[in-house]
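thread: overnight batch results

M.L. [08:02]
morning all. the overnight job finished for the chain we discussed friday. pasting input first so we're all looking at the same thing
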Amino acid sequence: MTITHLEKKIKAIKNKIFQLGPMLPGSLKKQWNVCGKKQCKCKDPKNPKKHGPYYQLSFSIKGKSSTLFVKEKNVPEIKKRIKRFKIFKQLSNELIASYVQLVRKQFQNSTDLGDNHSDSEHLEPKIKS
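M.L. [08:03]
and the structure it wrote out:
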């Protein structure tokens, strides 16, 4: 793949990411609950009927787990946003891989990325103390 081709591919991936729209990480679960009332239908010994469904979005951001309850009328939109986030992650991985390929092409004949180190050492930034 040529440098020009990689640059076009990178631009196309960026455009796809830009056009995704609102997104959400995580997963959506449907829940049924039992309440604390003794005479409630959810406690019927012969035919219990739990309350629900309730929908809960579970996700993590910066290592912190969180949840949001979602109204049933909003479930279709939340599912779309979760799907967009999955596409975003796939595109982000493609973008990173393309940037790595581009750097390899750009520096294949250069001493900037020496030949005596592993690939990971080539691409690690130098941190000044």
